[in-house]
Amino acid sequence: MNQISLCVSTYNRVDDLKRLLSSALGQEPAIPIIVYDDASSDGTSEVVREQFPAVELITGQENVGLIAARNICIRAASTPFVLILDDDAYFTSASTARQTVADFSSPAIAAVAVPFTENGALMQGDQSGDTVQLARSFIGAAHALRRDAVLACGGLRESYRFYCEESDLSIRLLASGLVVRHGTSDPVEHCPNPDRHPLRRRQLRWRSELRFKWCHTPTLFVVPVLVGHAGLLLVRSGQFGGLRESFRLCYSSCRDVFMSRFERKGVDIRTYLLWRRLAKLPRLTLDATDHVLAFRRAPQQRQVQGRGISLKR
């Protein structure tokens, strides 16, 4: 029985997609492959049908965006795990998918930050192999998910449109007692497409980070956190197109947050503190935090287990 499927959403990158699919067909053992063509205009669907007939192709009639496209792929999969790669990434080892399945070594692991290299640098992952090292989140270019856990918490939040959907999913999983780990597989290669626009991406990231902080920061901290985020924008306004453009970005982003105010479900303070700790070194391990995670998975046991839970390194 297949344990993991490759899910790829693509838009007008047919050459990149061909490279990825060619490498994916070399995985041992073979894995199911699902491609969502997000209404491309470069003949992507025709190429996939003609050159990769074994691939399950879903052709969108209108462009829905990356996050919604990934949700469609996750729902279409029938395996317990899904491996998600950007269409401008590709496999360099035939063992990556099999090794990624092995990284789900505990039912508490809901996501794996799959190792990948970009411009010669390893971007995420753990090659030590001694412990299960935890991550706060993962980079969307290469990651794997426990399908039922992701669907149970509502999937990726599509209102982000771009950036922070990974962190949003990760903190919701953490609140339910599930974690992200650093992967140990052979890395994939990510070749960022040259059509990126750095200024626009910085603006999108700031906007998404504001939404994320609004949605998940505990009530006790939400005002200073949001004020600090806005202040950082003004201090670094030169990186966002100047002071005038920064004010415009702040206004439009705050308006979006107000429109999405019903999405707010601030996490409890313990989850928030654990979330912040997961970003620091030394990395937390699954063994050191399993009792904390079990506490979140089984709130009805709180009276039995008592108070005084602490984190160990």
Automatic annotation (TrEMBL):
Q: Which UniProt keywords apply?
A: Glycosyltransferase, Transferase
Spell out the Pfam families in the cross-references: Glycos_transf_2 (PF00535)
Superkingdom of this entry's organism? Bacteria
| Glycosyltransferase 2-like domain segment(s) | 5-111
Q: What is its EC number?
A: 2.4.-.-
Keyword Transferase applies = yes
GO molecular function terms listed in the Swiss-Prot or TrEMBL record: glycosyltransferase activity
The entry's protein name is Glycosyltransferase
Q: Which organism is it from?
A: Paenarthrobacter aromaticivorans
